[in-house]
Write a structure and sequence with these properties.
alpha/beta, Rossmann fold, six-stranded mixed β-sheet, four-stranded antiparallel β-sheet, 29% helix, 20% strand, globular, binds iron/sulfur cluster
């Protein structure tokens, strides 16, 4: 039996869930696709096609040569027109396979549901599918779900919190595919031998909660058995969905510094990721499309889209209604934790789950002023850190100070910067401080 914990710290930014009521738009009208050979945290894949080759949807085009890498597949059918190095939104220069789409989306002949009979064949199937965590971290799912020898998982936690402003992709998955989510959870429990699962969802998403509960009841009725899956509501507060905080909120357990969820007997997986697992085991179509939210004052029609991986961002925005204003600031990911990029002409990769485009007016960064030791950042920090000390240590490159104040425990949530009246660039400095401690 797990008890619930409560998040101390955290903030209540305006939710801006402008797109939650609109169905996901499926976009296919792309003439050219650029698929990078690195869309995971491990080393890049090696291209296995050449310029001039014809490819089909789901065909392997990049081979993974490392346990932390996953294979890459074509998201369109068409002609390979170039293979060259390009910079992607995560800042890396990698080989990119350029494909001219024939618009037919013909599936590769090899596409068929994988044969899965046990844990090893299940994990192999996940690897072959090219799946990385769809929450945005790019961690290969087959590695995340490999339970080390000697460790035991008592509970699978499904992260459907989606606590960050603007983003609604997970909410739309819950609204549009609740049955596949329940099916995906059941498959993970079955093949990994985990006794129970808890879906954690914030209490500002009653529709998603209802649909998931209905889907669970429907599945139980069809199977004539009670599944060990429950839905738990979480308080709406940012960053409720951060992994360590979610674990505490749903189980009362605390992951130790430097530890992993498995150290406290749990695994956490994103809700869209489990939905993909169910779909893949049924169809055998690898991860070739991505759901993402488009929003911000620079976007004419904020929406959720489902696009081929490798679609160029300007094409996606144009097909979804276009820009409302010249971009002053572009963020890949959320407004609190995302990364600002300086140009739009990059491809959509597996890790992208939101693009925010703000006009010049909203992009203005307020000037920093000296810290007034008000302590608001300390109160807001969900990891119980002293952000002003970390900021000071990072600016003065004082490694001891950074270590003494546990800089590596920072989850870069941005709560401290959000509340700081002096508008200190806390997260950027703390991030740099973490880098100095690691080197
Ligand atoms: S110090 Fe890190 S964990 Fe704490 S509020 Fe700031 S960004 Fe979040
Ligand atoms: S909130 Fe800002 S001004 Fe206040 S203590 Fe923290 S860093 Fe200093």
């Amino acid at each position: 039996m797990f008890r619930s914990g409560h998040l101390s710290g955290g903030v209540h930014p305006k939710s801006h869930k402008n797109t939650d009521a609109f169905s996901t738009i499926h976009l296919d009208d792309f003439k050219e696709i650029h698929i990078p050979m690195s869309m995971h945290i491990g080393p890049p894949c090696t291209p296995v096609v050449m310029v001039g080759d014809q490819v089909k949807v789901g065909q392997l085009i990049g081979e993974a040569n490392d346990p932390m890498a996953v294979p890459i597949h074509s998201s369109v059918s068409g002609l390979v027109t170039a293979i060259r190095k390009e910079v992607t939104s995560d800042g890396h220069s990698v080989e990119v396979i350029q494909i001219e789409s024939d618009g037919l989306y013909a599936p590769d002949e090899s596409i068929a549901p994988p044969t899965v009979t046990d844990k090893e064949s299940f994990l192999k199937a996940l690897r072959d599918s090219g799946l990385v965590g769809l929450g945005g971290a790019g961690f290969p799912t087959h590695r995340k779900l490999r339970i080390p020898t000697g460790k035991k998982v008592e509970c699978l936690l499904i992260n459907a919190a989606e606590c960050e402003p603007y983003i609604t992709t997970d909410f739309r998955q819950c609204a549009e595919h609740p049955d596949e989510i329940i099916a995906g959870i059941s498959l993970v429990l079955k093949y990994l031998g985990i006794p129970q699962a808890i879906i954690g969802i914030e209490d500002n998403k009653p529709l998603a909660e209802k649909l998931l509960r209905d889907a669970l009841a429907k599945t139980e009725q069809a199977m004539r058995l009670k599944l060990a899956i429950s839905v738990k509501l979480l308080k709406t507060i940012y960053p409720q969905g951060a992994e360590k905080l979610l674990i505490h909120a749903l189980t009362g357990r605390e992951v130790p510094t430097g530890g992993l969820p498995i150290d406290v007997g749990v695994l956490v997986i994103n809700v869209s990721t489990v939905r993909f697992i169910a779909k893949y085991l049924k169809t055998g179509m690898p991860l070739v499309r991505k759901h993402l939210t488009l929003d911000g004052s620079g976007i004419k029609k904020p929406c959720n889209v489902n696009v081929p991986i490798g679609s160029m961002i300007p094409d996606v925005i144009a097909h979804a209604g276009g820009q409302a204003a010249e971009a002053g600031k572009i963020i890949m990911g959320s407004s609190m934790m995302g990364v600002a990029i300086d140009r739009l002409d990059m491809p959509i990769i597996k890790q992208n789950n939101m693009i925010l485009v703000f006009d010049k007016h909203e992009a203005d960064l307020p000037a920093e002023s000296p810290c007034i030791r008000c302590g608001r950042c300390v109160k807001a920090c969900p990891m119980h850190l002293f952000p002003f000390e970390l900021d000071d240590g990072a600016r003065r490159k004082n490694i001891e100070q950074l270590k003494d104040h546990h800089v590596l425990d920072c989850i870069e949530c941005g709560c401290c910067a959000y509340v700081c009246p002096a508008k200190r660039y806390l997260v950027q400095n703390i991030r740099a401080g973490k880098g100095s401690v690691r080197t």
